[in-house]
Amino acid sequence: MRRPPKDTEESARKITRRGLILGASQVGFMGLLVLRMRQLQVDQADQFRNLAEENRVNMHLLAPARGLIYDRNGNVIAQNQQNYRVVVRKEDSRDLDVVLERLSHIVVLTPSDIARIKKELRNAGPSAPVTIADRLSWEAFAKIAVNAPALPGITPEVGLSRAYPYGADFAHVVGYVGPVSDYDLQRIDDGDPLLRIPRFQIGKFGTEAKTEKTLRGSAGVKRVEVNATGRIIREIDREEGQAGKAIQLTLDANLQKYCLARMEGLSASAIVIDVENGDVVACASAPSFDPNLFVKGISVKDYSTLTQDPYRPLASKTVQDRYPPGSTFKMVTALAALEAGVITPQETIRCRGYVEVGGRRFHCWKRAGHGNVNLHNSLKMSCDVYYYEVAQRVGIDNIAAMARRLGYGKKFDIPMSAVSAGVAPDKAWKREELGKEWVIGDSLNVSIGQGLVLATPLQVAVMSARLATGKSVEPRMIASLDGIKQPELGGTDMGINENHLRAVRKAMFAVSNESGGTGYGSRIVEDSMRIAGKSGTSQSGNSIVRNADVEWDKRDHALFTGFAPYETPKYAISVVVEHGGGGSSTAAPILRDIALQALYGGTPPLEAYPSNDRATIRTQQLRIQALDPNQLEAEQDPV
């Protein structure tokens, strides 16, 4: 049926209107699309370019060089060595099993190694490097680099690893580093990102641990471009970290080496302190161990050998172990009594070989007794009865107070591990620590350095330094930090009567230089270098049984301490030989030899020794030189 013209016109108008609306909508949409495209491609181009860049640029932490440690003469005693290693990062660890299987054809990877790598990757941050293998040979390192296309995500690196060129000589002082552990992270409150790098090395023991933050430095960062497989294409830029600060110790490498060589075959320790500034110039504990074993990862066999050795090579005997100081403590009792005014240097006390107190006999080491002895002879001959009587007069509180003034009972601030405070006991200490009241027998035992009193070899050496100078000398081990000299610790006047100090020093001189003195057999004959000293025997078992009749570990400890030269004191020294028997026979010769080595700055002439000792000393010098060819040549004349 034919439509009317009017309807046709109306329909055409509607179609035209709709077409216009649709066309306008299409044009508007296209316009919006063009505007959005312009916004994305022009206005926001930089933003999206950066986002794209981040998708192919990784940030890597750069471990800084650890600070070096030097001895007082500038010899490097802890250094860094090149270490060829291969690492992987979590963000690059695609197809890890396949890659590790390929890598195992170049370097040995055990199942435990692979398990460790996967565990460390799970716990590591995205960009933290996980070490697959280190200390690689150059050949293995080169093969990995050449085969890099077949090892996506694997990165060969040249890093630094700690090394100790002097081996065992400084093990107990400098210590060693090792991989950071979960235990380390728990005990160290430190947010340094370096600690989150698996197997990052930190100080575990000794100076390395005590000055960790100083030596560690701060991390650097580098940006690298990687392809889709995780292989590094190029390094874009880097910001180097700050290397750790260098530390110079007060110790002398040559004297330290000599001390250990002189104590070879013994379980012993020796401390040498410069009395003028408190510098510890030797701190030796024998036997020692090689700290390089711990850096590389010590084997179970090697570790068992160290822990099962009865001479305890891992122990820092100089500062960690505490011993009854024996008769080396008698100077403390004497000074306490002199300062309290209960004795005079001239007063004599009769020694019959024992005193009886509270129904109990306290014996002198000389059962027949010494007869009438004054202060001078009591120290020279080490009479016990004299000090039993003095202790009853002066009282334990005065003795303990003097002991603390001379360095006992104090934990000195030196960069070594397990530093002990020892024990300078008094009535309050026994009540608080043991829950018991003090008795007179305690005072008598303490007066001769037995019973409850305990001291480290370091504390005994500090006592000798303070007696030599009358000043509150403090031990110092860090000479400079990052090239900045540290304060010397020569101390200030202790306020002890100089006449009393002079009387004690004179008696100590007699110990080593007058016939009848307990240290006379180990004297120095060179007038300008004579020792003032004191022997001690520290009971570690049944005092009734002779040392020669019991096993080694039940014998008494041998001690000797003193300072030299007597007229112008330079060094204070203490020596302890565990289970060595008598201090005068075992420890005194070692101290004499160390003192001469320190005073001469090398091997002393034989003329400094008594004539009847020179042949033995010559043999000893040759033995020590054979251990270390770099030791200074001894005098050739054996006479």
In short:
With 639 residues, the protein is α+β, with helices and mostly antiparallel strands.
Please provide a written account of the structure.
- It is a single chain.
- The chain has 639 residues and is an alpha+beta fold.
- 38% of the residues lie in helices and 19% in strands.
- It is built from 22 helices and 21 strands.
- The strands form six sheets. Strands 2, 3, 4, 5, 10, 17 and 18 form a seven-stranded mixed sheet that branches. Strands 12-11-21-20-19 form a five-stranded antiparallel sheet, sandwiched between helices.
- It is elongated, with a radius of gyration of 37 Å.
Key structural traits:
single chain, 639 residues, alpha+beta, 7-stranded mixed sheet, 5-stranded antiparallel sheet, 38% helix, disordered C terminus
Contiguous helical run count: 22
Largest sheet properties: 7 strands, mixed
Shape summary: elongated
- Detail the poorly predicted runs: 631-639
How many E-type strands?
21
**What is the helical fraction, as a range of percent?**
25-40%
Q: Which quaternary structure do these chains form? A: single chain
Q: What is the radius of gyration computed over CA atoms, rounded to a whole number of angstroms?
A: 37 Å
What would you call the structural class?
A: alpha+beta
Beta-strand percentage range = 15-25%
Q: For the residues shown, what is the average pLDDT?
A: 89
N-to-C CA distance:
151 Å
Per-chain topology:
Layout: H1 5-43, H2 45-56, E1 57-62, E2 69-70, E3 76-89, H3 96-103, H4 111-123, E4 129-133, H5 138-146, E5 154-163, H6 171-174, E6 176-179, H7 182-187, E7 201-205, H8 206-210, H9 212-216, E8 220-226, E9 232-239, E10 247-249, H10 253-262, E11 268-274, E12 280-286, H11 292-296, H12 300-308, H13 330-340, E13 349-351, E14 354-357, E15 360-363, E16 371-373, H14 375-380, H15 384-394, H16 396-405, H17 427-434, H18 440-447, H19 457-469, E17 478-481, E18 484-485, H20 498-513, E19 532-538, E20 557-564, E21 571-577, H21 583-600, H22 614-627
